[in-house]
Sequence to fold (538 residues):
Amino acid sequence: MFLMSVFLCVAAGESLMAANKADITILPAPVKMEQSKGYFELNEQTQIVFQTGNSEGEKTAAYLASVLRPATGYALPVNAVSDAPANAIYLQIEDVKLGEEGYRLTVGKEGVALSAATSAGLFNGVQTLRQLLPPAIFNSSKVEKQSWKIPSMAIEDYPRFAWRGMMLDTARHFLPKEFIKKFIDTLAVHKMNRLHLHLTDDQGWRIEIKKYPKLTEVGAWRKETLVGHSGKNNQTFDGKRHGGFYTQDDLRELVVYAAERHITILPEIEMPGHAQAAIASYPELGNLSEQLPVHTSWGVNKNIFNVEEHTILFLQDVLAEVVDIFPGTYIHIGGDEAVKDQWKASEAVQKRMKELGIPDEAKMQSYFIARMNEFLKSKGRKLIGWDEILEGGLGKDATVMAWRGIEKAVEAAKAGNDVVMAPTTYTYFDYYQGKKEKEPLAIGGNLPLEKVYGFDPMSIDLEPEALKHVLGTQGQVWGEYIATPDYAEYMAFPRACALAEAAWTPQAQRNYEDFLARLKAHVMRLDALGVHYRALDK
Ligand code: TNX
Fold:
């Protein structure tokens, strides 16, 4: 069988890795790769095959065919077989001992064999296989006069972290469903497996909740939007109504679309802060007697939820519908930047705190979060929130998304909580990525590609036991200044390419120069996919 010949070649020391390394531009870089002589050429007769009776293999085979057909124009039939025929790409589920998401890929002149213990592993192998073909394979229509050669080689690969994600802020500016699908496709190319959707904030509520229709009737729309940066004086507004929301059907469609690409969607419902759109919809959730509008400018906002039992139950009702739509283990409840001015000033809040025997506002927030944690646990889910949820005490079973700094991750992990690394310093893709004067308007800060690449999520001052709490990392595309899909892509890529490698490739094998060389080829893939990434610095 062809498999054997490849392994024998490698064993006989005919590795050509050094000579031809430049041609191999897999991104994120694989753990282990040995190139040998020759290549497999995909042609009109090539079949994609899976083990008879293996439905997971069949699904991945169908996905592979669907991504190879457009550019090649070949039929690439998908067939069940008991043994691999010649001129085939053979997908097999077997225990390759490379973890949940690992895979083994072997290319010889007669065919390709891809094995993994799970369909997620097969899917990752498929992404590598696409990248072994010329970048033109990523085109959505037939590419003429192109040969489709895959260099002979053996790869063993698996991720460094289980959590490899990106966050999109759909609350500050609504992003269309079709764009989110395209974004999911692009994440899949980078072997990322989480898409965090920030669905609610002061400026918009984007998720249909059947029990509370005003959340989207009112909360999904704002009168206008601040133009440029918010100075204290002279604010100007664009006078344009902005909004939109996802129906539950839209979200279920996205969940399925993402799951087919082994990506889990993490929904975020903000509380107790970043709540003005909800309070505008149902004023009884707030602390003031006046009717608030959906917010039209940015920044930390004093209008937060009150602490009445009916508000807690309201939010649990919302979470019940969220849990129903999103099957993933984690549900994000926000928790960031809830300034306590209104709680301090409110007689009702102070009275409630007394009744509950809660001594201060930080502990009040902690009670609020604990109620949500309890509720999510009763539904078999896990709570995750921004690192402010640590304040006032937090259950060990909650997961912390550390954004304010590495210290917050250290604090959480030492306390025994799992952590996702999302520090502003390395993962805020709403910051400028080049000289401010030369970039389109962004929120501020500076986060060039090289800095993102330099992020090692494990380079923190923790004992090995505590380090185990680091689940991985994700990039944040906050949307205050990101009003269009094209601009969201511009801010996300290529920085997400760098973060994908920080999340996948063993630290000892990472090298920025090497990454940049591969990225030059990789952006051709992004071009073919129509991704509006930021051009690489010359
Ligand atoms: C802080 S990060 C926020 C967001 C903003 C972001 C802008 C976090 C949990 N809160 O509300 O969009 O900064 O960079």
